[in-house]
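Input.
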Amino acid sequence: MFHGSMVAIVTPMAEDGSVQHDALADLIEWHVDSGTDAIVPVGTTGESATLSHEEHCALIRFVVERVAGRVPVIAGTGANATSEAIELTRCAMEAGADAALLVTPYYNKPPQEGLYLHYRAVAEAVPLPQILYNVPGRTACDLLPETVERLSHVPNIVGIKEASGSLDRARELLKRCGGRLDVYSGDDALAREMILAGGRGVISVTANVAPGKMHEMCTAALGGDAETAARIDGELAALHRDLFLESNPIPVKWALFEMGRIGRGIRLPLTPLSECYREPLREALRAAGAL
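Output.
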């Protein structure tokens, strides 16, 4: 249903933490012009954890309106309370989003049966295509392949963003669910190999600063052109690494500020990129042709 380079877009902010809607609109135009295949607002990279419910829904509406059907919009709507995830997913559907991306419930560490029932409840409550999101390094919760396989039989669960950092996990998901569920990389550094193994794309941090090259790399990999995909990915390798020198989205927001595309703002408890990491990230941006 969805494929290619799907940007986990930042939420631009001023230094006081207020959302910069003009900057967000400009980013959307840049992504559409650069070939980005889908826009994913209010996920981890969009600082969803520090947005109020009203801000979250308003941002989804804003992005859908600005994109105006030119590319799919996949709205982040995950929460650690099932009732809140349902509410946010319903908001995304009413706003006109094409799908929702739901991170595993964080902090409360549900068992696998709880995860299954959580996702099934959201899917049954809101008839919108839904993508599971597994990122155990941030949530302390691992959505196991056998649970994903159970969920792949729920009609409107259409994919999974797998960000465990394991190609073996991705291969297992493809083997178990490949005919029913699209598998997307949640790790930029593994995206090329995951796509060549049968994945359908990446929900990407790197695409925030190098949208054209991420699109080209994904297109080559989806077309089976491993050589071209490897060449482009090599140009992006330093970005894949250095955009995680500190917790996402700290480095990527600083990089976009350095590129003159957004303001300095980021919400506490996150802080601007530490001085010691700025020159290495500048070098990675230069290597990718982004600066």
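The chain has a mean pLDDT of 97.
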